[in-house]
Amino acid sequence: xxxxxxxxxxxxxxxxxxxxxxxxxxxxxxxxxxxxxxxxxxxxxxxxxxxxxxxxxxxxxxxxxxxxxxxxxxxxxxxxxxxxxxxxxxxxxxxxxxxxxxxxxxxxxxxxxxxxxxxxxxxxxxxxxxxxxxxxxxxxxxxxxxxxxxxxxxxxxxxxxxxxxxxxxxxxxxxxxxxxxxxxxxxxxxxxxxxxxxxxxxxxxxxxxxxxxxxxxxxxxxxxxxxxxxxxxxxxxxxxxxxxxxxxxxxxxxxxxxxxxxxx
Length: 264
Known about the structure:
By secondary structure, this protein is mainly beta. It has helices spanning 8-12, 37-49, 173-183, 188-191, and strands spanning 16-18, 21-25, 57-65, 74-84, 88-97, 100-110, 132-134, 144-148, 161-165, 205-215, 225-235, 238-247, 252-263. Strand 11 and strand 12 form a beta hairpin.
């Protein structure tokens, strides 16, 4: 798919570049002050990818959210070229705002190779026809179409849910991987709660601590995808969630993990 206009994600990935240092002015978002983790992770992946040969595609990323960032301010992304091999390239990205580190990321890129193609057949926990439309998730509702469980009235999108881009995204593997990175941060924080604790607006303070993604297969943002995320551990005020992103036909597109801080 091609688009005659620049997509919202491509606009968010526009950098001023000086060698391997990338600078971006984060957009203003009204009264919202805390920078969305999925955005800063997507921008970090884009900066890393800009230093990699075109033939190598995002394979995985592992990010630590060191401290909260803010909108309407500059962020610098410093990229270290850890390794450039024939099949793989590795990068370390440090995102800095107001002189303080807000994110550290290690990203790997891989030249596609022939081999076995297998993934488990998993039944959906939420069928598409049983999901209902939902708007205004963290003020990003205009960028995505969402279908969630009928009882989900939270400001998040409680997994499992269905999601697709509401407008065309460029046919560029890196831009599409950054789109996936952005949306992958929409569900894990609420999912990291223990199953017996219901999500409430007054529950307490929550924040992403770290986030990992494995990019298995090409991502088509215009198609419906099912995001399944489940809690696997909670202790010491930290919850661990494991996620899987599936295409509508059940193909496993990506796997995620995230640990979230929950001070209740």
